[in-house]
């Protein structure tokens, strides 16, 4: 893996539907992982469950395709700033990624805020057994 990419800072991508946000987020995620960042230290967050699932699907699909296809590998390498990306490096990254799926932080903003609030419920003065109610309960 290449450690030069670990210096990538935070990035916010704001754009309307259909402009390539999922593509950009997936490649940014891959660049961070390729640069040596641990999957549990990278957060990709969006508004819908569908979009967060698409980000994960895109990450895995692009990496798997890069293992087998030289053209895809060159394209991924260009987007993540790794012109020397090899099939073996992609395979290792894919194996590592799939081995720690439970640690990935690809979620909706709502889910992120719920996790944070649960973790800090005492500090925030929120009862420990709080929950969000749905429209029917409200």
Structure notes:
The model is unreliable at 1-6 (pLDDT under 50). The protein has a two-stranded parallel ribbon. The chain has helices at 21-34, 49-68, 70-80, 87-99, 109-119, 121-124; strands spanning 43-46, 105-108. By secondary structure, the protein is mainly α.
Descriptive keywords:
53% helix; mainly alpha; disordered N terminus; 138 residues
Helix/strand order, N-terminal first: HEHHHEHH
Strand order of the largest sheet: 1-2
Proportion in β-strands:
5-15%
The gyration radius over C-alpha positions equals 17 Å
Biggest sheet statistics: 2 strands, parallel
Structural class: mainly alpha
Q: Tally the beta strands.
A: 2
Helix content: 40-55%
Shape: elongated
The tally of helices reads 6
Low-confidence stretches: 1-6
End-to-end Cα distance: 50 Å
Mean pLDDT: 87
Write the layout of secondary structure elements.
Elements: H1 21-34, E1 43-46, H2 49-68, H3 70-80, H4 87-99, E2 105-108, H5 109-119, H6 121-124
Parallel strand pairs: 1-2
Helix pairs in contact: 1-2, 2-3, 2-4
Structure in a nutshell:
The chain is mainly alpha-helical and 138 residues long.
């Amino acid at each position: 893996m290449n450690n030069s990419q670990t210096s990538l800072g935070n990035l916010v991508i704001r754009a309307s539907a259909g402009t390539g946000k999922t593509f950009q987020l997936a490649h940014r995620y891959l660049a961070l992982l390729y640069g040596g960042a641990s999957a549990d230290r990278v957060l990709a967050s969006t508004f819908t469950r569908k979009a967060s699932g698409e980000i994960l699907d895109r990450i895995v699909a692009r990496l798997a395709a890069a293992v087998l296809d030289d053209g895809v590998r060159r394209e991924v390498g260009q987007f993540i700033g790794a012109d020397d990306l090899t099939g073996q490096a992609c395979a290792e990254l894919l194996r590592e990624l799939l081995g720690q799926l439970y640690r990935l932080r690809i979620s909706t903003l709502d889910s992120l805020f719920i996790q944070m609030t649960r973790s800090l419920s005492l500090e925030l003065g929120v009862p420990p057994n709080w929950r969000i109610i749905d429209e029917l309960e409200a």
